[in-house]
Amino acid sequence: MNVRPSRNLRWVKSSYSEGSGDCCVGVAVGTSRIFLRDSKDVSIPGIQTSVASWSAFLSHATR
C-alpha cells in the first residue's frame, strides 16, 4: 500500500545501501506499522507493512 506517513517519524537509511548512494532504502518504525521509502526521492510515496510481516521478512532475509 502506498503511504505518505507522518513527518514525525525517524527515518533510518539501510546499512546495506549501495556505497555510491544510488540505491538507498529508508525505514521508519511507527506505533503499529513499518514504513519504507526511497531515501533518494522522498517525494515518491513509500509503502507500509505490519510489524509482524516486517519481522517475518527480516527473519528470512538475514539467513
Quick overview:
By secondary structure, this protein is an alpha+beta fold.
Architecture blueprint of SSEs:
Elements: E1 2-3, E2 12-13, E3 25-29, E4 33-38, E5 46-50, H1 51-61
Antiparallel strand pairs: 1-5, 2-3, 3-4, 4-5
Report on this structure.
With 63 residues, the chain is of the alpha+beta class. The chain contains 1 helix and 5 strands; from the N terminus they run βββββα. It has one domain. The protein has one helix at residues 51-61; strands spanning 2-3, 12-13, 25-29, 33-38, 46-50. A hairpin with a 3-residue loop joins strand 3 and strand 4.
Shape: globular
Pattern of helices and strands:
EEEEEH
Largest sheet: 5 strands, antiparallel
> Quick check: average pLDDT?
80
Strand order of the largest sheet: 1-5-4-3-2
Percentage of helical residues? 10-25%
Low-confidence stretches: none
How many H/I helices? 1
Key words describing this protein structure:
alpha+beta, five-stranded antiparallel sheet, 32% strand, 17% helix, 63 residues
